Amino acid sequence: MAPGALSSVLLRSQRPSTASGVVGVVASVGVATAAIYPLKQVTPVLSLNVLYVLAVVVVSTFWGLAFGVATSLLSAAAFNFFHLPPPGRFALADERDWAALVALVVVAVATGLVADAARSRGLEAERRRKEADLAAELAQLLLGSADVKDALDPAGERLAAALGAPSARIELRGEEPARDVLEDGGSVRFELRDAQSAMGALVVQGVLTSAEREHVRERLLPPLESILAGALHRAELEAEVVETAALRRSDELKTAVLRSVSHDLRTPLAAILMAGDALNAEHPTSENVSEVREQVLAAATRLGHVIEKMLDLSLLESGRAEPRQVWYSIDEVLHEAIAQIEAPEVEFALSIDRELPLLQGDPAQLERAFANVLENAARYCDRQPVTVRAREVRGRIRILIVDQGPGIAAADHERIFLPFYRSGERPSHNSGSGLGLAITRGFLDLNGGRIRVESVPGQGTTFVVEFTIGAQPPDAVAAVPGHPAAV
């Protein structure tokens, strides 16, 4: 691109060419001269020189003041030669005609000045309007985007279109500057700064004249810098809000963990200490040792369950609980989950359809998920049987776990699946750690299941778990150790 060849609507508005200006001057004077012939039959010829003023206005508006002055001089010559006596000569028979010619030139020049000034102001107003439109578009792009970096490329394209350049880009501070260079030219770099420091740079491909570069610095960079500074500041505030929210959530989680630890970890530890203190070290009896052993094992088992749940929740929260995708039988998973429940006083009544379709997922995770639900039901069943039913319903396997406990208020139907949440409807002496149902939902979500609760206070609780039945394996054999059909 040759120097000065970069055209721009914002930087300059091109007038028509010089050749067309010469043609315009001659044509406008010729038209005015021809129009006087029929009119001077009915109007004094000296009053018709106003037609030349109209020609001067037209030429000055389109081609500028220089062509307007040339039009006024040519108009005076044409008026003298063709219409003032003696015709066909550049001489005047009456001295009063000199005054008419001088007046024509003065009025024409003055009119040209006014027309040229009006045109310049109009062009300046149009230029400012386009600059304002460009600033508004840049503000919409940079301030309306969720990520400022995503809006830089569209903003660069819009700037390139406004400047008439092959391309333009906005580089933020700290980014590695690109080395884009045209074969027959280069690129111009403008620094972008806020009130305190550099934010980046505007890089325009193509050769700009000194006037164009100055215009970019004075008229284009200030609004761009203000908009970019606002966008970056907003991004910083949003990051601070997200960080603050994360810290607050972390603090809440830490508080909940400490609250849980203070109850669920200290209680079995206290039981172990009390059992150890009750053991007669000098003369232990078999009954004493047996009793202490049972207390220690029970407390240690409870402590192990709490630690296991906290580890499961940690894996879920960190996104590292990847399920193994194998075929399994829901019948086997439910039996294994019941076997993990240490509640000999609670009866589990199973009603599972025969030959239920196989499902795909991680049976170990699902065993822990169902064990938590069953443990919850056993804790609040008031020594009544807990019913477990599994059916195929409209392309889904639906499992119902029903207890006859105190029920759960409607407001708590979703909250009970939050970590460390304990329903106010449940007896406080039976409260668990508040982790089990959160872990259940996490493992079910990972394995394509979903869970909801149906309950009325005082009328028991039903947990509903559903799985979508997919295409069955060719041999319809579960790849789970212990499955009756496994090879």
Spatial gap, N to C terminus = 76 Å
Low-confidence stretches: 1-12, 178-184, 478-487
Sheet bearing the most strands, described? 5 strands, mixed
Helix content: 40-55%
Q: What's the number of domains?
A: 4
Mean pLDDT: 78
Structural summary, described in words:
- The protein is α+β, with helices and mostly antiparallel strands and 487 residues long.
- It has four domains: 18-126, no CATH class; 150-242, no CATH class; 259-318; 326-468, 2-Layer Sandwich (Heat Shock Protein 90).
- Helices cover 53% and strands 13% of the residues.
- The chain has helices spanning 18-39, 50-63, 65-82, 96-144, 148-163, 210-278, 286-318, 330-339, 363-380, 436-446, and strands at 168-172, 187-193, 198-205, 326-328, 348-352, 359-361, 386-393, 396-403, 449-455, 461-468.
- Strands 5-7-8-10-9 form a five-stranded mixed beta sheet, covered by helices on one side.
- The longest helix is centred in the middle third of the chain and has 69 residues, at 210-278.
- The radius of gyration is 45 Å and the shape is rod-shaped.
- The two termini are 76 Å apart.
- Mean pLDDT is 78; it is low at 1-12, 178-184 and 478-487.
Question: How do you describe this structure in short?
Answer:
By secondary structure, the protein is of the alpha+beta class.
Fold topology:
Blueprint: H1 18-39, H2 50-63, H3 65-82, H4 96-144, H5 148-163, E1 168-172, E2 187-193, E3 198-205, H6 210-278, H7 286-318, E4 326-328, H8 330-339, E5 348-352, E6 359-361, H9 363-380, E7 386-393, E8 396-403, H10 436-446, E9 449-455, E10 461-468
Parallel strand pairs: 5-7
Antiparallel strand pairs: 1-3, 2-3, 4-6, 7-8, 8-10, 9-10
Helix pairs in contact: 1-2, 1-3, 2-3, 2-4, 3-4, 4-5, 4-6, 6-7, 7-10, 8-9, 9-10
